[in-house]
């Protein structure tokens, strides 16, 4: 029979919260530990995903326009498709940038 788990420990991603304190981990190593006696208040916020969302959004829009242009060119003239597929790939990357900037 296995011993019961410690129910006072909460783990999320690389953060571990217990009655002893809060720790940030990397793999199985503790990177930083803050004891509970030093903690006065904990506030959880959902922040922006990018450090510079305006730059990411601008770059994403440019890439998305390139992708749309490549898609239109691929549909109108499907004979040469190497460059058009690369342009569509840029469009997908741009859509990812836009999605991350607007999170």
Could you describe the 3D structure shown?
The protein has about 100 residues and is an alpha+beta fold. The chain folds into two domains: about 5-40; about 55-100. It is about 45% helix and about 20% strand. A four-stranded antiparallel beta sheet has the order 1-2-3-4, with no helix packed on it. Helix 1 runs antiparallel to helix 2 (about 80-100). The two termini are about 45 Å apart.
| Estimated radius of gyration | 23 Å
Report the mean per-residue pLDDT as an integer: 85
As for the number of domains, it is 2
Q: What is the makeup of the main sheet?
A: 4 strands, antiparallel
Helix content: 40-55%
How would the global form be characterised? elongated
* Tally of separate helices: 2
Number of strands: 4
Strand content: 15-25%
Global structural class: alpha+beta
N-to-C series of helices and strands:
EEEEHH
Q: How would you write the strand order of the largest sheet?
A: 1-2-3-4
- Uncertain runs are none
> What is the rounded distance between the termini?
45 Å
Structure characteristics:
single chain, 103 residues, alpha+beta, 4-stranded antiparallel sheet, 2 helices
């Amino acid at each position: 029979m296995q011993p019961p788990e410690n129910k006072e420990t909460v783990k999320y991603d690389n953060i571990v919260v217990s009655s002893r304190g809060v720790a940030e981990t990397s793999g199985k190593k503790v990177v930083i530990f803050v004891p509970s006696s030093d903690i006065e208040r904990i506030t959880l916020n959902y922040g922006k995903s990018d450090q510079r969302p305006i730059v990411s959004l601008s770059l994403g829009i440019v890439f998305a326009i390139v992708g749309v242009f490549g898609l239109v060119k691929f549909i109108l003239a499907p004979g040469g498709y190497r460059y058009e597929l690369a342009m569509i790939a840029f469009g997908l990357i741009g859509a990812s940038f836009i999605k991350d900037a607007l999170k």
